[in-house]
Amino acid sequence: MAPIFAHSLAHHAENDWELLADHLALVGQMAALFAGRFGANVLGNVAGRLHDIGKMSAEFQAYIRGNGALRGPDHATAGAREAVRLYGDAGFGRILAYCIAGHHSGLADGGTEHLPGTLTHRLNSQNKRIEAYEGWEAQAGTLPEKSELRLPEPLSVRSQHSGFERAFFIRMLFSALVDADFLATEQFYAQATRRGFANSLEVLRDRLDAKLTAKASTATEVNRLRSRVLAHVRAQASQAPGLFSLTVPTGGGKTLTSLAFALDHAIAHGLDRIVYVIPYTSIIEQTAQVFRDALGNDGDVLEHHSAVEWDPKGDEQLDDEGKEGLKKLRRDAENWDVRIVVTTSVQFFESLFAARTSACRKLHNLAKSVIILDEAQTLPLPLLRPCMAAIETLATGYGASVVLCTATQPALRKQDGFEWKGLENVRELAPDPDDLYRQLKRVRVAIAPEPVSDDALAEQMRAQEQVLCIVNSRPHARDLFARIKDAPGARHLTTLMCPLHRRAALAQIRQDLKDQKPVRLIATSLIEAGVDVDFPTVWRAMTGLDSIAQAAGRCNREGLRAEGIVNVFRPDEVGGRKPPPAIEQFAAATREVLRTHGDDPLGLEAIKAYFAQVYWSKGPDQLDAAILGDKPNQTQGILSAIEDTASALNFPFAEIASAFRFVDDTMQPVIVPYHAEGPLEPVESLINSLRFVERPGAIARKLALYSVPVPRNKCNDLISSGAARYVEPEKFADQFVLLENFELYSSKSGLDWQDTTFRSSESNIIS
Is the separation of the CB atoms in 740 and 724 below 8 Å? Predict the structure, then answer.
């Protein structure tokens, strides 16, 4: 009998190829290890040993030997069918079938046998191509009996999210399988790049301690208060894993305090890693740099956000991994196998509800982790209840601790009055949040009674040497900056700058503020969360009260002045310009709260009243994104769709992934020609390096620092006009886009895609 192979090697004899039995054994071992983190090692092993038995078919063996077919035959459905035959279609067999059938193409909807592409349709298909796998036992080995399979103990107890927990368990098992399959394939091709842990948590904690000791040596009243908060929070690290809140006013040092708690807590309870979730891509590099400054540059800190998503979303076809398995490796998705992950809310939560293999690959590493949700109040309203269900499930079923870390704690707990399955058993880490607010109060809020025109704002900006103005849209920021750009110290900070550009701009702004030089800064909300700047005066366009509180955190931050002033104003709606609808609903809630809490609009009572307006005034359906139901023109929320299909394990995974979107626009990173100072590799060199690699991961991480996220349709305009081009599209499809018209990138305001054909008059002169 001819040998059965899992992967081939171009230009090598078959003796060098990977035997299917070897691949199944290794994936089974790895999947068991990964799923063992949440008590499902036996199921992980079964999934790994069955996932590729369809490769036994004569058709697949001919394909990897080069029969000329452009795409490989379906090899995943065979293992899914065998799982159902062995373990039943109503329990463990169907759980395994979801994972095995989707290990290349992604988690499918359960569906019915009449809907092509659904799991049920694939399991019931009579396609002969996926049935020729007799004798698979010789490849996979003896599997456990049905009676030997168990759900993890925390999931065997009913909770307020019982159906959701079953669907979530399938995702976690799926994650363990696809990561194991990727790593095993990578290992065969001798391209192993698994990071692992460079340092122990104890080493990282000791480094952080040294950093905190140095910071505490600056004896100001604010620093003394930060030290007291830090000591109180760290003293609670021995508490059992679960749900926590950390309510510390802006400027109270909560970023490093939460990191210190996470390290202490992880060490105390044998947890593996820390995942720090930040609302905005624009500040992720700053937080990651703060952590590197404290913990070292040994590779323990990973930044992961949309600009580092180099796995093409359209590249996951049904079981198509290429003749040599290299298509799978080319996706090169992150699996968060590091000590400290700094990521965005978009990346974190969309992965938790994703269907694609590359997005789900990392999920199993959330088990036994400490997850810090920074600025937890920024969760989008239409996705709030699914996010809360995921948070609670991670804490109750997967040994994770989740910390809701914010200056303005949202009223998400059941005890706060959140009626629709609010969070339970949330323990506050901060010492007396009300007293902390009073001690750290450093600003006075003034509400402008009438709308303020752009000319009046510009006049105010010119009249003050150091002033920050935050508005609600990039066009408004651009118009304001145009009015003051000739004033000394005029600056514009925008997400249209690449991360390195923003980093350099912020560094100069901080230095100029310290040196008492003029700084007149126009920005959008990107500066509000976690950006360490200190202005005597801030102007903030009317918005949600939590955002106003964040803006106040950029005013008199270090308490060096008797009082800072935060002016809240309603922009004049010139030219039909109105605030975005999402902003207006938050602004309306703010105006309502100001009627009763105008004397102290940033106090905790005012904040609680604000979130009561934002959350509790809505019905539960408005806090749960809608997906299509079983009947024509019928929709239902994500959570209700999961609960309705839970008894038959017929979950609509693909539908949920499509509906769960933090942002409506699909963004494409565009690489820009910014020249950074220092030892960083130039963008030109990185682009050239793409010519010589098959797996772009390491280069893509560096290119992310030179990238600006652009709406997909605007990116297409740039390409069609010749202002940008794809880099190595034959290998990487549309993963890398390089700006060619350098005139579109400004040293003051970043990328401008409004006129893709623009060139300055100087560039049109023929020399």
Answer: yes
Quote the CA–CA distance of 3 and 175 in Å, as a whole number: 30
Q: What phi, psi does 564 have (nearest 5°)? A: -100, 160
- The answer to whether the beta carbons of residues 180 and 323 sit under 8 Å apart is no
On whether the CB atoms of residues 461 and 469 are closer than 8 A, the answer is yes
C-alpha–C-alpha distance, residues 162 and 140, integer Å? 33
- Residue 239, sorted as left (phi over 0), alpha (psi -120 to 50) or beta, turns out to be beta
Whole-model pTM: value is: 0.86
Closest CA to 703 of 678, 686, 719: 686
Pull the structure tokens for residue 4.
């059965």
Q: pLDDT tens digits, residue range 342-381?
A: 998 989 999 999 999 989 999 999 999 999 998 887 788 8
Strand (E) or helix (H) holding 401: strand 401-406
Contact in structure between 48 and 6 (CB atoms under 8 Å): no
Q: What is the DSSP letter of 374?
A: E
Instruction: Write the CA distances from 211 to 214, 215, 290, 518, integer angstroms.
Output: 5, 6, 11, 31
Q: Give the pLDDT confidence of 577-599 residue by residue, as tens digits.
A: 777 777 888 999 999 999 999 88
Distance CA 661, CA 347 (A): 10
For 23-61, give the secondary structure using H, E and C: HHHHHHHHHHHHHHHHCCHHHHHHHHHHCCHHHHCHHHH
Specify the amino acid at residue 686: L
Number of Cβ within a 10 Å radius of residue 617: 10
Determine the Cα–Cα distance for residues 381 and 396; give it in Å rounded to an integer.
Answer: 23
Measure the CA–CA gap between 255 and 391, rounded to whole angstroms: 20
Handedness of CA 233, 234, 235, 237 (dihedral sign): positive
Cβ contacts of residue 426 below 8 Å, gap of 6+?
243, 244, 245, 404, 413
Q: Which of 530, 180, 480 is nearest to 344 (CA)?
A: 530
Distance from C-alpha of 608 to C-alpha of 593, rounded to nearest angstrom: 10
Q: Report how far residue 508's alpha carbon sits from residue 518's, in angstroms, rounded to the nearest whole number.
A: 12
